[in-house]
Amino acid sequence: MNCHRINELLELLNQSWQKTPERSLVEMLTVIAQEAGHQDGLDNISDDTLIYQLKMRLEDKTAPIPGLAKDSEEDFKAAILRARGIQS
Known about the structure:
This protein is an all-alpha fold and about 90 residues long. It is about 55% helix and about 0% strand. The longest helix is centred in the first third of the chain and has 15 residues, at about 5-15. The model has no long low-confidence stretch (mean pLDDT about 85). This is YihD family protein. It holds the Pfam family DUF1040.
């Protein structure tokens, strides 16, 4: 893992950990892994999973998933016409 990703992970973990400071690091990581649906031990969880889950913990529960928000369309009819090359 490069320095940028380590710093990002630590920053996100710090923000989330401040909400429940009574937990130990292992407890905190276990909760995050469980929220992400990770079934194996902590030694098998990827840094991508941790970073993504920590980001999602900070988002509003009704907010769209970050990677999908850019692809959503408010007006379905306009999106279909645009996909067919017809500008409305």
